[in-house]
Design brief:
Largest sheet: 10 strands, mixed
Strand content: 15-25%
Shape: globular
CATH class of the largest domain: Alpha Beta
Order of helices and strands: EHEHEHEEHEEHEHEHHEHHHH
Number of strands: 10
Number of domains: 2
Structural class: alpha/beta
CATH superfamily of the largest domain: Spore Coat Polysaccharide Biosynthesis Protein SpsA, Chain A
Length: about 325
């Protein structure tokens, strides 16, 4: 099949001060088994030598390199900028510290062919350390209801996806998802009011427009390294943004009492989930988080307790099922 009969896929590759991972990330994209791709590279004014490495890829005919002279202050703004140049029918956002399987685009596109109602296809991601060694995947710790939803066909209808996203971000890695570009434009891109949960808000908005499909094959490698470990300041920002996003979702949608309860419970569960990630940072920012969300939810401690209880039960259930 020649390129003229294949849909064009736009890959928006955002780069900022991770020169040590650039070659692995870009090589995994330029060597995709699916050939009709364009790669739009947005370097957000890196100062660590990243731009010199990126210039070595300019000889590829399908690479569009944009070296910024001023930092935007946000991967969200850099991603939206890259998307503004995208000509493809489909779009994927690749992060400079992640990398992909060679057949990632090919497999994700195949799922679109078999599921015409779907506007987003996303896959399992392997979690890797700084050296690229796999140590886990992002499916193992997923909630029971998510596992049940994708167990048979992988197809998740929009209203079901909204329920899942109201408890946790079940697409934690933007690099693992292929999106129909017209839907991305219809939603007006990633929300720039958020620094860290813009993609979560984006997925929630998309549930009103389309169905989703999950590919159980790990096609992406989600790197965890020193700069992804959350300080108490970064953690506070993320927790508060989650609360603002969830309660904005409550305000703009007509929901019944059960749905409202689920979203409030979800916010509490997310707050507690950061404790599991870094107890020291969580305790350090607890007072400031508690104070900042007081105008969002009066009963924040009540829902924090219920969310923690739900997460612990979920964790125990996962351990029990994993031991069988």
């Amino acid at each position: 099949m020649d390129n003229l009969s294949q849909p064009l896929v736009s890959i928006v590759f955002t780069s900022y001060n991770h020169q040590e991972y650039l070659r692995q990330a870009l090589d995994s994209l330029v060597n995709q088994t699916y050939s009709n791709i364009e790669i739009i590279i947005i370097d957000d004014c890196s100062t660590d030598g990243s731009q010199e490495i990126l210039k070595k890829y300019e000889h590829h005919s399908n690479i569009n390199l944009k070296l910024q002279t001023k930092n935007s202050g946000s991967y969200v703004k850099a991603s939206n900028l890259g998307a503004s140049f995208a000509k493809g029918e489909y779009i994927l956002f690749a992060q400079c510290d992640d990398f992909a399987e060679a057949n990632q685009i090919e497999v994700l596109l195949k799922a679109f062919e078999n599921n015409p109602s779907v506007g987003v296809v996303f896959s399992k991601s392997n979690l890797v350390d700084e050296k690229g060694t796999v140590y886990a995947n992002d499916f193992t710790g997923r909630e029971k209801r998510f596992k049940k939803a994708v167990n048979e066909t992988g197809l998740i209808c929009g209203h079901k996806m909204k329920e899942l996203l109201s408890f946790s971000c079940v697409i934690p890695n933007l690099s693992a998802a292929l999106i129909k570009n017209d839907l991305f434009k219809e939603i007006n891109g990633l929300s720039e009011q958020y620094l860290v949960v813009a993609d979560w808000e984006f997925w929630l908005d998309l549930t009103e427009k389309t169905d989703f499909f999950y590919v159980s094959q790990p096609l992406n490698y989600f790197r965890q390294h020193a700069t992804t470990i959350r300080s108490s300041i970064k953690m506070k920002t993320q927790i508060v943004e989650v609360y603002k996003m969830f309660y904005n979702h409550l305000a703009k949608n007509e929901l019944d009492s059960i749905q409202k309860y689920e979203i409030k419970l979800g916010a509490g569960a997310v707050w507690f989930s950061y404790f599991l990630e870094s107890k020291k940072a969580w305790l350090k920012c607890f007072t400031s988080v508690f104070s900042e969300i007081k105008n969002i939810e009066n009963n924040r401690i009540y829902y924090l307790f219920l969310g923690a209880k739900k997460l612990i039960i979920e964790y125990l259930n996962n351990r029990t099922s994993g031991s069988k």
